[in-house]
From TrEMBL:
Residues bound to [4Fe-4S] cluster: C19, C44, C47, C53
Primary gene name: whiB
CC cofactor: [4Fe-4S] cluster
Family: Belongs to the WhiB family.
Pfam families the record matches: Whib
Domain 4Fe-4S Wbl-type: 18-77
A GO term for molecular function: metal ion binding
Name recorded for this polypeptide: Transcriptional regulator WhiB
HAMAP family: WhiB
Keyword terms, alphabetized: 4Fe-4S, Cytoplasm, Disulfide bond, DNA-binding, Iron, Iron-sulfur, Metal-binding, Transcription, Transcription regulation
Lineage, broadest ranks: Bacteria, Bacillati, Actinomycetota, Actinomycetes, Streptosporangiales
Record note on cofactor: Binds 1 [4Fe-4S] cluster per subunit. Following nitrosylation of the [4Fe-4S] cluster binds 1 [4Fe-8(NO)] cluster per subunit.
Biased composition (Basic residues): 80-93
Source organism (scientific name): Actinoallomurus iriomotensis
Length: 93
């Protein structure tokens, strides 16, 4: 299931993010290049709710934007790595 921004209810930590006064375009760039994400990730690096933000994006399978300092591609990699770890645990004798 994919969650869109329209579906999301605001979570309490969202008002504490370091991105509150930043340009949303930084976090939802039109281009998905690494260079365009660099500034947003630098802001996320100093964010006090970074873990909550990333967890929220992973839990809700949010596709667009930079959350918790991770791009969509990086979040997909995290999800795949988690799946692989779960499969290994299940298949252990
Ligand atoms: S981790 Fe980044 S995107 Fe998430 S709330 Fe903090 S600054 Fe915003």
């Amino acid at each position: 299931m994919t969650t869109t921004l329209i579906d999301m209810a605001p979570a309490p930590w969202m008002t504490e993010g370091a991105c509150q006064d930043e340009d949303p375009e930084l976090f939802f760039p039109i281009s998905s290049s690494e260079a365009s994400a660099e500034r947003a990730r630098a802001i996320c690096d100093g964010c006090q709710v970074r873990d909550e933000c990333l967890r929220y994006a992973l839990t809700n399978r949010i596709k667009d934007g930079i959350w918790g300092g991770r791009t969509e591609q990086q979040r997909q990699s995290l999800i795949r790595a988690r799946r692989r770890r779960r499969l290994k645990v299940r298949t252990r004798p």
